[in-house]
Write a structure and sequence with these properties.
The structure is a single chain. The termini are far apart. Strands 1, 2, 3, 4, 5, 6, 7, 8, 9, 10 and 11 form an 11-stranded antiparallel sheet that branches. With about 240 residues, this protein is an alpha+beta fold. It contains 4 helices and 11 strands, in the order βααββββββααββββ.
Length: about 240
């Protein structure tokens, strides 16, 4: 199928100190594009809720080949691909005139709205169009192990403003959380080239995440957020070479 296409203007509040799109902003716009595409297909959030179903993001990869500037018009193009196991796969592109794109690969799960128990793709009771073109579905198999030398970096309480309509921390909030715990000297000096995130357990209002992390390569870092023995999220962030 053809890409679903939309557009928005990048606001100054969605850019970092170098006027590049924040990781959290890229995540948010990719999530919003998927939601608007479902609306256009006739599957709005309310219709899914009426069937006790909801889509939850499980894995995400964002590749920054470039970045729009504040006040630039950004075109969003997104399309789904055939499921892999329990995962609904989707690709998204964010582009602005004169800039290289930001590319996203996502693996979503269908879950029961109340219990958030994972449902098989066959439980989705409506016709859902998938693009048959070749798509690298490795995101469905993505793993991020906790390095043995990951150190405690601090704690992060979960506040009301972190939550979304699914009553848990919104996936884009983890983008800011990750950037806040990465070394400031790296964040100020080197743009993010790629970020891979796994959403493993939901975090809720009143939780406090223990953040661990370490450098895992000459250009990359690992970060994890833990609630007790559970890891709520894991991330690998690769920075552009200086």
């Amino acid at each position: 199928m053809a890409f679903f296409e939309d557009s928005f203007t990048l606001s100054a509040s969605e850019a970092d100190l170098h006027r590049r799109m924040k990781l959290s902003a890229a995540l948010r716009h990719m999530q919003d594009a998927a939601s608007r595409h479902l609306d256009a297909l006739g599957y709005p959030y309310e219709k899914l809720m009426a069937s006790h179903q909801v889509f939850l993001l499980s894995r995400m990869e964002v590749l920054f080949e470039g970045s729009p500037q504040p006040e630039q018009q950004v075109t969003v193009r997104t399309r789904p691909h055939p499921p892999k196991g329990v995962f609904f796969l989707r690709e998204t592109q964010l582009t602005a005139d004169g800039t290289a794109p930001i590319l996203g690969k996502a693996a979503w799960i269908l879950a029961d709205y109340e219990t958030h128990q994972v449902l098989r793709p066959s439980s989705f009771g409506w016709a859902y169009p998938f693009d048959p073109v070749d798509f690298d579905n490795a995101i469905a198999r993505q793993r991020i192990p906790e390095p043995a030398d990951a150190a405690a970096l601090g704690t992060r309480p979960i506040r009301y403003s972190d939550l979304d309509g699914n009553r848990h921390v919104n996936n884009a909030v983890y983008g800011d959380m990750i950037c806040d715990f990465l070394p400031a000297v790296w964040m100020k000096g080197r743009p993010i080239r790629k970020a891979t995130l796994l959403y493993e357990h939901e975090a809720f209002l009143g939780d406090e995440l223990r953040i661990t992390g370490c450098q895992i390569g000459p250009d990359s870092w690992y970060l994890g957020g833990h609630r007790g023995e559970e890891r709520c999220f894991a991330a690998e962030v690769v920075f552009a070479r200086p």
